[in-house]
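Tutorial handout. Part one gives the primary structure; part two gives the three-dimensional structure as C-alpha cells.
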Amino acid sequence: MRRLLALGGVALGALALSGCTLVPTASSPERIARHQIPFGLLSKTIPGTNNGRVRFITQPVYIVDATGHLAPSSRIVPSPPVLATVLRQLIVGPTQIESFAGYSSALPTNLVLLSASIKNGLGYIDLATPLSHLSRSDRILAVGQLVLTAHDAGAARGIVITVAGELQQSLLPNGAAASTVSPSAFLSLLNP
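Part two.
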C-alpha cells in the first residue's frame, strides 16, 4: 500500500510540474531589434571571416521516377557547383515529398563517395564499394543517375567510376560494359 501511495504522489507531482515551463509564451510573434541579435548573424558576410560569402544555385540531379525512368530534380548547392557536392546531394536520395510522389533512387543508401572531380570534361568518381551487388536494372539506373548528374555539373564527356582507386566496368543500357561512360548512352532512360 505504501508503494502505491508513493507512486501516486510521484504521478501527481509530475502532472503538476508538466504545466510549468521555463520558456515564456506570447500570444503573437514579437519583433526583435537588430541591435539585440548577437554574433553578426544579420550580416551579409559569414561571421568570423574576412567578408566571406556563400552563394547558392539550383543544380539538377537525376532520380528514378514512378515509371522507372530517370528524371531531373533540383537541389541547392554552393556556387559554383563542384562535382563532389552535387553527387552527395544525389546520394541523399529523393526528398520526402518526391518519395510520396513515387520517386526513388537506384543508388544504395549507404553509398560512400570517396572523391569526385572533373578533368578535361571527364568526371572521375571514386566510390568506397562497387555497384555490382545491385540487380542488373538497378546498376544501369544507378550509373545513369551518376553520369547524367555529372554531365549537368560539368562532366560533358562522361564519367569513369573507380572503387578505392580500382577502375570499374559500368553496365550500359544496351547490355555492354565500358570503363568510360558517356551521357548519350543513357538518354534512352530519360522520361519521354
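Part three, for discussion. Residues 52 and 117 are 24 Å apart (CA to CA). The mean pLDDT is 88.
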